[in-house]
């Protein structure tokens, strides 16, 4: 692994978003001297407080919203979302397999869209909603249950990614009855080296049916 | 990957300031190219500027009959756009074929256009020309996915952007901003053939930012066809896009652009000449296909691409004509 980075953050031109927001807060206060002014100042101050330093460098605190829960850790900017989830936040559903945006085992749902967490920087996910397989309903009618019922796995390593991609696909196409072709297209960002694709597709079709009926 | 400092500007102005350095700087958008290159130490920037928080860079808008596509527009949003689907089927088709659902959710138009070559010698640290001890690893090694045009030169990789091909066929213009202001260039001028290992294949200067591509107004019949080894995940082996300004029933001015055959998106002048003034028939398409392979000089393992050029050019032209004969029966 590469060495730790010890550079101190420096912003070009001496600008900072925090200073700018503080300035705009003052401008707002002098322009609107009503009860709304207090709200404006409060908002500007809250934004300024939330604003990050302009440049991140080295380890820095980060809070991510994972499965509805705020989780905090410290990471470097170079940490991927996958490594941060697994190694810092103990969310180990997403798997590290190819680590090159090719296999889909690391799939998470970011603001509603399935993405490869191995190829997403954790720092870029601040404020976004992250869903992993840990958060899914495992009862009857859910996607994990359908995988179980239709034998959608063999060694199981690709399964969390497939379940996540499947959940995202069905959530994005509510009330539809997908064909086998649709499901193949919807899940073609994931690979199963054991080759249990037929079970996976059957599980996806069954889950779609149950969700439509629900 | 090497540690870097990270900025996430929210305006194009701040992005330009951050892109100015100091040190080596890479712009990050979807990350589907850059993060892999950083993991493999092919790129080790001092600073990474994350552009997806610059909301002004994303979005598709109709302007005086033309279509402006922000460089930060995600491929999933481009593929869902009703105007693109209806009027620019070549661009729509190329977009829905890119990568996987996850990739299209992450990747952006700008990132697709400016991704670095996928040549495995480049990705393994042997530079754009893929040389070792003065010898071309490409020429002597496995070159099955490399170029078949311009192969008398040293740059044997292929341009990796499958969106550049329909965009050039549609005469799209790229808007680039930099420290010196704004400039607009044809999308094909984003690329160049590197002469030495110090050259880049992209013409963007350090600190410059691609902000949008604009497809000009005017009716252009367009079509696209790609040949691929795998149905998903992979890049096409060869693809062709055509953009045709019609004079009644005959082609007035037509563009034929190929993916997968040269270090730049390859405009086939011979094929363009072969269709000028002709009706869009199967005979015209076959003549253009034959013309498109003139001058091809495959390497030791990629002669198959010559046949694929013929097929993709013919089918892209007939796709534009609405004659998708290969889907019959």
Describe, in plain words, how this protein is organized in 3D.
The complex is a heterodimer of chains A (214) and B (329). By secondary structure, chain A is an alpha+beta fold. Chain A has three domains: 17-49; 60-134, Beta-grasp domain (Ubiquitin-like (UB roll), Roll), CATH 3.10.20; 137-213, [2Fe-2S]-binding domain (DNA polymerase, domain 1, Orthogonal Bundle), CATH 1.10.150.120. Chain A is 39% helix and 13% strand. Chain A is built from seven helices and six strands, in the order ααβββαβββαααα. A five-stranded mixed sheet of chain A has the order 3-2-6-4-5, with helices on both faces. In chain A, helix 1 (17-31) packs antiparallel against helix 2 (35-50), helix 4 packs across helix 7 and helix 5 (159-172) runs parallel beside helix 7 (197-213). Chain B has 329 residues and is an alpha+beta fold. In chain B, strand 12 and strand 13 (250-259) form a beta hairpin. Classes of the chains: A alpha+beta (214), B alpha+beta (329). At the A-B interface, strand 1 and strand 5 of A face strand 1, helix 1, helix 2, strand 3 and helix 6 of B. Strand 1 of chain A pairs antiparallel with strand 1 (5-7) of chain B, so a sheet runs across the interface.
List the helices and strands and how they pair.
The complex is a heterodimer of chains A (214) and B (329).
Chain A: H1 17-31, H2 35-50, E1 55-56, E2 60-66, E3 69-75, H3 81-88, E4 107-110, E5 113-116, E6 129-131, H4 143-149, H5 159-172, H6 180-186, H7 197-213
Parallel strand pairs in A: 2-6
Antiparallel strand pairs in A: 2-3, 4-5, 4-6
Helix pairs in contact in A: 1-2, 4-7, 5-7
Chain B: E1 5-7, H1 12-19, E2 25-28, H2 34-39, E3 47-50, E4 60-63, E5 66-70, H3 75-80, H4 82-87, H5 89-96, H6 101-106, H7 109-114, H8 120-123, E6 131-132, E7 135-136, H9 137-140, H10 164-169, E8 173-178, E9 181-186, E10 209-215, E11 221-227, E12 238-247, E13 250-259, E14 266-267, H11 269-275, H12 282-292, H13 304-320
Parallel strand pairs in B: 1-3, 2-3
Antiparallel strand pairs in B: 4-5, 5-10, 6-7, 8-9, 8-10, 11-12, 12-13, 13-14
Helix pairs in contact in B: 11-12, 12-13
């Amino acid at each position: 692994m590469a060495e730790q980075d010890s550079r101190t953050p420096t912003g070009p031109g001496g600008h900072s978003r925090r200073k700018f927001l503080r300035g705009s807060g003052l401008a707002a206060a002098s322009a609107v001297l009503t009860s709304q002014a207090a709200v404006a100042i409060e908002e500007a101050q809250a934004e300024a407080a939330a604003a990050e330093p302009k440049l991140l460098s080295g380890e820095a605190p980060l809070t991510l919203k994972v499965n509805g829960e705020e989780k905090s850790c410290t990471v470097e900017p170079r940490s991927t979302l996958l490594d941060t989830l697994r190694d810092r936040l103990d969310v180990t559903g997403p798997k590290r397999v190819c680590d090159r945006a090719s296999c889909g085992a690391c799939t998470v749902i970011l603001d509603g869209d399935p993405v490869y967490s191995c190829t997403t920087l954790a720092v870029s996910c601040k404020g976004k909603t992250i869903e992993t397989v840990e958060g899914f309903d495992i009862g009857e009618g859910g996607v994990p249950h359908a995988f179980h019922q239709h034998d959608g796995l063999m060694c199981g390593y690709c399964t969390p990614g497939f379940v996540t991609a499947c959940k995202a696909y069905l959530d994005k196409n509510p009330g539809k009855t997908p064909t086998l072709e649709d499901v193949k297209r919807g899940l073609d960002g994931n690979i199963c080296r054991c080759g249990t694709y037929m079970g996976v597709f059957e599980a996806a079709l069954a889950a779609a049916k149950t969700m439509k009926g629900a | 990957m090497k540690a870097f400092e990270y900025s996430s500007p929210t305006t194009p102005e701040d992005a330009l300031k951050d892109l100015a350095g100091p040190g080596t700087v890479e712009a990050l958008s979807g990350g589907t190219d850059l993060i892999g290159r950083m993991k493999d130490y092919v790129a080790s920037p001092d600073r990474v500027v994350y552009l997806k928080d610059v909301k002004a860079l994303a979005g598709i808008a109709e302007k005086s009959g033309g279509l402006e596509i922000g460089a930060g527009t995600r491929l999933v949003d481009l593929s869902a756009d009703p105007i693109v689907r209806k009027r620019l089927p070549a661009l729509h088709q190329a977009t829905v074929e890119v990568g996987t659902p996850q990739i299209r959710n992450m990747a952006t138009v700008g990132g697709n256009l400016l991704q670095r070559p996928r040549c495995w010698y480049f990705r393994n640290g042997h530079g754009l020309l893929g040389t070792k001890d003065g010898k071309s690893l490409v020429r002597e090694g496995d070159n099955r996915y490399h170029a078949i045009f311009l192969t008398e030169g040293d740059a044997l990789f292929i341009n990796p952007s499958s969106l550049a091909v329909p965009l050039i066929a549609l005469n799209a213009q790229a808007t680039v901003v930099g420290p010196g202001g704004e400039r607009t260039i044809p999308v094909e001028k984003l690329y160049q053939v590197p002469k030495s290992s110090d050259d880049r294949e992209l013409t963007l200067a350090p600190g410059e930012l691609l902000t949008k591509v604009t497809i000009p107004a005017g009716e252009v019949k367009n079509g696209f066809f790609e040949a691929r080894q795998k149905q998903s995940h992979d890049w096409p082996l060869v693809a062709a896009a055509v953009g045709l300004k019609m004079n009644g029933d005959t082609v007035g001015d037509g563009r034929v652009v190929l993916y997968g055959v040269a270090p730049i998106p390859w405009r086939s002048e011979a094929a363009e000449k072969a269709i000028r003034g002709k009706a869009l028939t199967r005979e015209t398409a076959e003549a253009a296909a034959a013309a498109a392979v003139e001058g091809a000089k495959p390497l030791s393992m990629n002669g198959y691409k010559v046949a694929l050029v013929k097929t993709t050019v013919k089918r892209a032209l007939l796709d534009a004509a609405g004659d998708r004969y290969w889907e019959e029966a």
